[in-house]
Write a structure and sequence with these properties.
The protein is an alpha/beta fold. It folds into two domains: about 200 residues, 3-Layer(aba) Sandwich (Rossmann fold); about 90 residues, UDP-galactose 4-epimerase, domain 1 (Alpha-Beta Complex). The protein has a seven-stranded parallel β-sheet, sandwiched between helices. Strands 12-9-14 form a three-stranded mixed β-sheet. It has a two-stranded parallel sheet with strand order 7-10. Helix 1 crosses helix 7, helix 4 runs parallel beside helix 5 and helix 8 packs across helix 10. The chain starts with a strand and ends with a helix. Bound molecules: uridine-5'-diphosphate-4-deoxy-4-fluoro-alpha-D-galactose. The site of uridine-5'-diphosphate-4-deoxy-4-fluoro-alpha-D-galactose (UFG) has 20 residues, from helix 6 and strand 8.
Length: about 325
């Protein structure tokens, strides 16, 4: 297939570009490099453009003849979305609408969307399956949910078929060591604990030890970036085989606490990790764990790197390079 990967220079997008090329697809990245990295592009073509630029999108689609689009280009910081919702609705929603309209204008009708567990808001039950009510509690989650609802409308009205993939906690790095996570600022737990292990930062904060969990720290479902990429390839197969849209939750179904992640980093790296206990971070649910049985049953998805130590080991290989410890 000829695939347009929007946000292909970012963390998950760059792993996807590499995987698509390895699977024999022709791939073109569209990125404005607002948060992505040029040296994260390992394959395919590049269109340097902004999703706010509808003319540039029109030109990209006129020249591209794409069979499908994957969309990874969004802002991802929950706290920032509370402080500056306009930035999130503009980029994550309005710019996505530009992209969808450009697809329709050029009769591209297959779309894989990077959604988030944040669409579910405060969990009413855990693990979270696709039937769980979706009442997001911050602008980031709402921007993702609004796209999902728009996709349902576009399916009915225009026949645009989509798969929304709700990632739980994306983590890990390219098993070959070529790519990894490089957010600036970094807010995610796994890379921050690894920075404390490598010495790039003095310590990691633990945001709350008084949650209703066995060790008092929050529980999350960490899913390897390479397994997320496999789900995207399977979503393309789904769209080719079935003339309908769907949404799937993507996680391992195993929850690990913040303390367990820190213990895994100490185990895998053999290094000390200094901890600073800090107050709860606003908006953090105690437990977020996916029920991903639908992705397994319908897509045939089989996460391969489900062991936490493997996720941490791959991310550690990447962190060693960033820290110059090679
Ligand atoms: N945490 C710490 N210290 C840190 C960073 C995080 O204790 O320095 C804790 C958080 O409080 C949370 C857990 O580690 O309990 C995981 O936090 P992350 O920020 O890594 O991930 P989240 O679960 O908050 O975020 C995930 C995705 C986001 C997405 C969000 C939506 O990684 O991109 O879900 O809910 F926006």
């Amino acid at each position: 297939m000829r695939l347009l990967v929007v946000g292909g220079a970012g963390y998950i997008g760059s792993h996807m570009v590499k995987r698509c090329a390895a699977a024999g697809h022709e791939v073109v990245t569209l990125d404005n490099f607002s948060t992505g990295h040029r040296d994260a592009l390992t394959a395919g073509g590049l269109i340097e453009a902004d999703l706010a630029d509808r003319d540039a999108l029109g030109r990209a689609f006129a020249a591209g003849r794409f069979d499908a689009v994957m969309h990874f280009a969004s802002f991802i910081q929950v706290a920032e979305s509370v402080r500056d919702p306009a930035r999130y609705y503009r980029n994550n929603y309005a710019n996505t609408l530009n992209l969808l309209e450009a697809m329709l204008a050029h009769r591209v009708r297959r779309f894989v969307f990077s959604s988030s567990a944040a669409v579910f808001g405060e969990p009413q039950r855990v693990p979270i399956d696709e039937a769980h009510p979706a009442y997001p509690i911050n602008p980031y989650g709402r921007s993702k949910r609004m796209v999902e609802e728009t996709l349902a409308d576009f399916d009915r009205a225009y026949g645009l078929r989509s798969v929304a993939l709700r990632y739980f906690n994306a983590a890990g790095a390219d098993p070959e060591g070529e790519l990894g996570e490089r957010h600036e600022p970094e807010t995610h737990l796994v890379p921050l604990v690894l920075r404390a292990a490598s010495g790039r930062s003095p310590a990691v904060s633990v945001f709350g030890r008084d949650y209703d969990t066995p060790d008092g720290t929050c529980i999350r479902d960490y899913i390897h970036v390479a397994d997320l990429c496999e789900a995207h390839l399977l979503a393309l197969d789904f769209l080719a085989a079935r003339d309908r849209s769907a949404a799937f939750n993507l996680g391992n179904g195993n929850g690990f606490s913040v303390q367990e992640v820190i213990d895994a980093v100490r185990r895998v790296t053999g290094r000390a990790v200094k901890i600073v206990d800090a107050p709860r971070r606003e908006g953090d649910p105690a437990r977020l764990v996916a029920d991903a049985r639908a992705a397994r049953a319908v897509l045939g998805w089989r996460p391969r790197y489900h062991a936490l130590d493997t996720i941490v080991a791959h991310a550690w290989a990447w962190e060693r390079r960033q820290a110059g410890l090679e």
